Queue: 3 jobs
Job 1
Amino acid sequence: MDTESIRLFVLAAEKLNISAAGRELGMAPAVASAKLAKLEKSLGADLLRRTTRKVALSLEGAEFLPYAREILAQEDAAHAALGQGDVSATGTLRFTAPSTFAQLYIAPILPEFLAMHPGIRLDLRFTDMEFDLIEGSFDLALRYSALTDSSLKGRKLADDTRILCASPNYLKQHGTPAHPDDLNAHQLIAFKDQSPSQLAGRNGEKGQFNPRQAGCRLIVDDGASQKIATMAGAGISKNALWSVHRQIAEGSLVRVLPDYKVDDQTALWLVYPKSNVLTAKVRIFMDFLLDRIDKSPAWVDA
């Protein structure tokens, strides 16, 4: 398979412009169109939909795109192993991360990264929705959970302590729980799946934060909205300490059941598909995040 044609297809898919992709590779428009047509014939599928006004990915093209990127990454890695080719950090890096963490800790440092690496273009998706990395053609993702997917590799970015908290006004009106069983009499705010979390006391006591058993009238799918609702007095919620540590320090939120630890073993992980070659752009971005987001950040629970 002609990797030059594959490189042309990847560029055309990113730019949605065959002529512009061809120019970047030093090809005349007619040559670029002919090369893509030959690639499509060899694959037996139309990868791009062409009209007089625009170019769009076909369904087959969207399915082939992550494999095309992988072929190019393997080729670049092979050249690098032989000391050949351009192994500098260039190209588009597709990265997805949970929106709240990204807004607080990643977005503010992006200008520094872009200034350091002018050859890299970032294509970012900051959302609490988890994308399939392979189907979505993502190079890298930030996940806060235990790394259980066998198709992924990862590097731990930081610990991810979870705590229960509420506003002072809510606790003044409804009382402060002294034991996990007291949560059943409170209004709990649940985050999407409502799954129970195990609580472990300092002396081995056990309990649960279980929205399914308690009065859960508010379910959200966004961490920032959950924090805002908690601060407004909507109830007791489970939050990442990195998200609420400033509000705890200033007193707009109060930690609930401070003698109990949320025992969910989550951490912040930078993950990428196991089948992918760790390209220069991905390695450099991972190293940058690991360096700038301190391994012992201010939010780590003592």
Job 2
Amino acid sequence: MIGVFDSGIGGLTVLREIYKEIPKLNTIYFGDTARTPYGNKGEGVIKRYSSQVVQFLINQGAEIIIIACNTASAIATNFLKEKFDIPIFEVVLPGVEKAIKVTKTKEIAVLGTRATINSQIYPKLITLKDKKAKVLSKSAPLLVPLVEENWIQKPETELIIKRYLNFESSFDTLVLACTHYGFLFNIIKRNLKNNINIIDPGKEAVFKLKTFLNNNQKIKSRLLGNKHEFLVSDKTKKFQNLARKWLQKDIILKQHIFE
């Protein structure tokens, strides 16, 4: 099965994309809701949490991992790839590659959690691939808890988004460097100029996964079955209701608590 994990509910945006683009895969999702958000944690803690979750997913039968969290992707990807001998996909590099491909002005804005922005992973990778690119980065720490609280349609949320989108300079491409922001995509879009590209790194990561599976049909055949499991470290009705609404599935949550 495919193991997908996030610090909370944001990774469901990636999971929905998997259902859409690569149907009938067996999947297991883990939302670390008891310890969310990862975005305000230190590097060592993020690596430890991510390692615990990946090991748990492997123990449950996951053969491929998607880190559906920009913070964990930015901080822990190399650490996890060194520790675990299975294919691991992350969301940062696919988002970077797409942003570079579509920008015309070479001015790219990045909106993410504090940990992702402080890691400087997006500016480093973007300028490594295109030295002429200019990157504008901004942390948006309030957006993750607003999504987790299901305040997506609240007017206060739109006001906060407008404030975060007030960058100091112009740009033609915006990277949503947190999978939680996928829930806010339509609100973000209507508060930007029509000609601005909005990059969802989660979607780009699923495209990478799809390409990998198409090139490895034996692996893909082992993952087929259309069975889905959903686990969290803190089981709440709020998570279950939002997950059901977002995925259009009758979801039964199970809980796993790390020692």
Job 3
Amino acid sequence: MRDAQQLLADAKVIAVVGASRDPRKPAHTVPLQMQRYGWRIIPVNPHVDELFGEKVYRSVGEIPFPVDLVNVFRPAEDAVEVVREAVAAGAPAVWLQLDIVSPEARRIATEAGIDYVEDRCLAVERAVGNLSKL
């Protein structure tokens, strides 16, 4: 299993479940920052059509191309279903944002053999590792 730094270093395309159009929320600022550092961000949100200059998908399963990482900005109780979707879609890794922890989601990811990170922030890990895709 890859650690958080290795996941980010390997990823090029990140699906962000719960991406927000509200610029005051971390679910907007974190994906936007990752995009500015060169990752392709694919927003997943059932209530928006476009974010960050990208088409928004209603679910991970609707994304018509592979993603390297599914990043989750949803409450822990929603994470289980998101991880199931990620596994079904063939995503190799799932990342639950800061303060999101789900033993059940971890179990599902582990049993499926995909990488799993929880309770960590993409933007913080990017900065700590001085990572960029540019």
